[in-house]
Specification:
AAA+_ATPase, six-stranded mixed beta sheet, 239 residues, ATP hydrolysis activity, binds adenosine-5'-diphosphate, single chain, 10 strands
Length: 239
């Protein structure tokens, strides 16, 4: 069973009178430990597809299978349990870093939501911070996001993403707002997470060169459809 399988998934927005089929009959698989880059122009449907994968939206048609379980059919507690096995990393780490929270709470929040006791959260938060190169963690636990540099914030965002040991991480343009050296660091951290935990990644980017560098396979999205998917070196489409 693949880690993730999309079967002919369609999502149509009908709020506007003309409507738009943001995701149009998409089928895809992702194996554990695989990095799939999703490339395509603005408006191609990448963000909608990622929300469907994360169980934040429901498709109109089709199945979204996580380890064989169709999350598109789940509700309530069962859906929340599946969502906790995934994590979203955004381009602006501030999106995930609530300014009023201390770093200990920011990184520990996914564990708190999952019901992990606070005594167990502390050591797991410290080891996640060490994983991303922010050890010894005591220097950071009591600070707030605005007291950190951009690079430290992005590391904190990744610590938060990996602390719950998710099966799947969706990274939506995680390096589009950072300089080349921080981009290299972020990619290294993501690749190390894949090695250590066997995490699968859906890596959304505009940057085809970056997709070729980081991904095992690339899916090219245009107007809601996957027009091509395959190993980076065999790709012919120009997204
Ligand atoms: P991308 O992430 O590739 O830029 P999106 O998934 O954001 O693409 O958008 C795909 C299409 O769906 C676009 O036409 C966009 O305007 C539309 N769309 C996205 N989200 C919504 C929404 N919540 N309501 C209505 N239309 C939406
Ligand atoms: P190109 O020659 O087309 O730039 P590269 O393989 O050199 O292709 O780079 C592709 C993308 O991957 C670029 O955006 C580059 O910044 C990034 N990249 C290349 N090497 C590394 C690396 N070691 N660490 C992080 N990012 C890298």
């Amino acid at each position: 069973v693949p880690l993730l399988e999309l079967r002919v998934v369609t999502r149509r927005y009908t709020r506007r009178r003309d409507g738009v089929t943001a995701v149009d009959g998409v089928s895809l698989t992702l194996a554990a430990g695989e990095i799939l880059a999703l490339v395509g122009a603005s408006g191609a449907g990448k963000s909608t597809l990622s929300r469907l994968v994360l169980g934040l939206e429901r498709p109109d048609r089709g199945a979204v299978l996580l380890d064989g379980v169709d999350i598109a059919r789940l509700r309530g507690r069962a859906l929340r349990a599946e969502r906790r096995r995934m994590h979203l990393v955004l381009q602006d780490p501030y999106d995930a870093l609530h300014p009023g929270m201390r770093i200990a709470e920011v990184v520990g929040e996914p564990l708190a939501i999952a019901g992990v006791a606070s005594a167990e959260r502390g050591p797991r938060v410290a080891s996640a911070l060490e994983e991303v190169g922010l050890g010894p963690a005591e220097r950071f636990l009591g600070r707030h996001p605005h007291q950190l540099s951009g690079g430290q914030r992005q590391r904190v965002a990744i610590a938060r993403a990996i602390v719950g040991q998710p099966r799947l991480i969706v990274a939506d343009e995680p390096t589009s707002m950072v300089d080349a050296s921080l981009r290299a660091t972020i990619l290294e951290l993501l690749l190390a997470t894949r090695e250590r935990l066997g995490t699968g990644f859906v890596f959304i980017t505009h940057d085809l060169a970056l997709a070729r560098y980081v991904a095992d396979r690339i899916a090219v999205m245009q107007a809601g459809r996957i027009v091509e998917v395959g190993p980076a070196e065999e790709l012919v489409a120009d997204p």
